[in-house]
Amino acid sequence: MEIELWWLLVLPVFFAFGWIAARIDLKHLLRESRALPRSYFKGLNFLLNEQPDKAIEAFLEAARVDPETIELHFALGNLFRRRGETDRAIRVHQNLIDRDGTNTQLSDEQRLHALSELGQDYLKAGLLDRAEEIFVKLRGTARDEEALKNLLEIYQQEKEWGKAITVAEAMPNHSDHLWQKAIAEFYCELASSEMLHGRGAEARERIEQALAVNRKCVRAAILLGDLEQSEGRFDAAIEAWKRIEQQTPVYLALVAEKLVQAHRQAGREEQGIQLLRGYLERHPSLDMLDAVFQAELKGSGPEAAYKLVREELRRNPTLLGLDKLLEAQVLVAPPERRADLELIKNLIHQHTRRVARYRCDNCGFKARQFHWRCPACGGWETYPPKRTEEFDLSP
User: Cα(116)–Cα(131) distance, rounded to whole angstroms?
Assistant: First the structure.
């Protein structure tokens, strides 16, 4: 292939332009790096070495040398908040906002960023009213979704469930399944409050709204059964609780005792016990076993309860099941053997206390009490009513 003569003349010119551009860029980079305070690079080095205390001191020195470094103030505020020094974080971010209008003008994005950071400082400090005021201001801006998430957290902490519903429904992805679960739970919180104050009609309306948002909301079905039982409609209460088997059957253990009580109030206690036996066979769980054991113990006596636990232990061997078996054995054993059985039972019970907790599917937090909302991560319906031993035995 022949190369034309004019190409030989043009190529050196291109190389010359490239060399000049590289030199200009290098000079510009060196000029910018010299303009930055040396303490700025020391702070970055401390951050990389996971030494936040020394990094803060270095950044404070850099901010004193060059007070116009806005991004440096943002970094300082974040470091203070992460360390729990919310008062210092508030001062840093408030100082940025107060500087707006002086010779150092913040861009629109920087001002919104500073407001958002200040709102998070107030939220971390527990000053919820001030945080709410800031995030309300951020509604309709480029930080709208961030403001909605923080407002939702504030309203959940304050138990302002009506406002929480409004904010959750304004989320861009509010139709997703996770948001439907959360919104249904907010309605359930309102229903619980109405029931507590004896307003049955309003509670029923809230329960219906919860089921309209999420037809598989187990808590709504439980509350509906509670409402029907409190108004003397025992058959309706039983039907409401029985629907849980079609929703999420693992939650049946939460209403097992209620079912027996409602059947007893309707004059059909044996039918209620038989219903629980069927649930235990189809959906075995330690809480369901405990409920059936107590019902058998009260309805048919210790011998029947002992046989029930023995059969279930053969089918699903667990420490908690063994604890129930020993409890039943103590009741049916002759007096001379009860002391030994009590000793064994107490030893087993000490071990079962460690595996008798509920565990959050989302963060792994364990608790002795069942929660609809995890106390650690704030997730809704992340606590299946299963003990940790059952998780360890599951494949």
Answer: 9
CA distances in angstroms from 46 to 51, 64, 68, listed in the order given: 5, 18, 22
Number of domains making up the chain? 1
Q: Provide the domain limits for residue 386.
A: 357-395
Rounded to an integer, what is the distance from CA 138 to the centroid of its chain?
24
| Residue position matching structure tokens 């002759």 | 334
* pTM of the predicted model over 0.70: yes
> DSSP assignment, residue 255?
G
Give the contacts of 295 (CB within 8 A, at least 6 positions apart). Answer: 256, 257, 260, 272, 273, 276
Residue 366 covered by a domain: yes
Q: SS3 breakdown of the chain: % helix, strand, coil, rounded to 5? A: 75, 0, 25
**Torsions phi, psi of 387, nearest 5?**
-80, 160
Token pair in block for residue 228:
């029907």
**Residue 333 domain-assigned (yes or no):** no
Residues 6+ apart with CB under 8 A from 88: 80
Q: How far apart, in whole angstroms, are the C-alpha atoms of residue 395 and residue 383?
A: 19
What would the two tokens of residue 75 be? Answer: 């970094």
Query: Two tokens at 280?
Result: 């235990």
Tokens of 211: 């089921």
In a domain, 372, yes or no: yes
Confirm if 367 and 352 have CB atoms less than 8 A apart: no
Q: What percent of the chain has pLDDT over 70?
A: 76
Strands (E), the chain: 358-359, 366-367
Q: Which amino acid is at 65?
A: V
Query: Tens digits of per-residue pLDDT, 151-170?
Result: 999 999 999 999 999 999 98
Residue-wise pLDDT tens digits, 180-229: 889 999 999 999 999 999 999 999 999 999 999 999 999 999 999 999 99
Burial state string for 285-318 with b = 16 or more CB within 10 A and e = fewer than 16: bbbbbbbbbbbbbeeeebebbbebbeebbeeeeb
